[in-house]
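Protocol step 4 of 6: structure prediction from sequence.
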Amino acid sequence: MSTKTSKASEHVFEEIFTADEKTRILDIFNKCTTEELQFIRLLNNQKAVAIVKYRERNGNFSSLPELLHVPGLGIIGLQKICNTVKNVDFTSVHQLKKSLELESVKTKPPLPENVCDNLRSLVALEIHADCVGFAHMTRDMTLESWSLLPLFDKPFQRVDPVQLLDKLMQVVQQLPKADIYVLESQIYRYTNLRIVPFLTNLRLMEAMLVTLLNPDLAQTCQYRTFFLKQNSVMKFFNLSVGGEKVSCRHIIQDIQRTALPERDPKSLVSNVNVPSMLWGTYWNEKSLGQERLSNCLLLAVAFYKLVVLKTHFLQQ
């Protein structure tokens, strides 16, 4: 970068950012690791690596224009990046990373802060064509109940909407009482016209169930059903191979085999407590039923740790 360009860019940054903002921005660029820099909007892996390499060779950045020496960073791009972090005031890199990662964990509708603070228990649900699975968990990560509630004898059984609504009303009556009910958003791909009625039926079931679980919504305007972003559980527990979700039963089996005090404190399920009497429910199911119960339990754990307790985060 020429001397003339350097002076021009320095003047631009002087005009745009205050002294406090420049201090905060430099603090971030001087402390963040490559992984942490990638949580900043507009900074991809290539730019993050280049920033850290330059810093390792030349020491900390002393001014914003010095960042323009980093390959891949131009004046306009750097201005946009600085604008995203100029008001971020963190005392440590760890706080920065945790905050930016937690921002990616959102629910639909948004979970109100007062509901989050006062939450005592939740029920995680998974809807299938022939049953509804649930896991009822308290705030201290203790599983209270865990089951599959049957709907129909056959998964592809043809039913009219009135009959379907009646079945779901029976399911709701059997669900345990909780402060909120949570599901994971699903995107159904209509790859075959023959399965369109089946997938449409699942959407209808989901809509009916949510409506039944929010009977006072019109009067109170307060939701009791919340959706976690699609694939959140898969990402949280690292259950992806080639972008596709794999079985999670090995995690459930680890919970059973390892006593609570003996678990690795860094484990994602270190404090999950499943009473012995509930394991009979799990092992009495066939392979498919065990997978469905596993999904419900891990959804409950992920929702607590990502949204309610905010002790963990999702990788971008």
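Step 5 (inspection) to follow. The chain has two domains: 4-105, 113-308.
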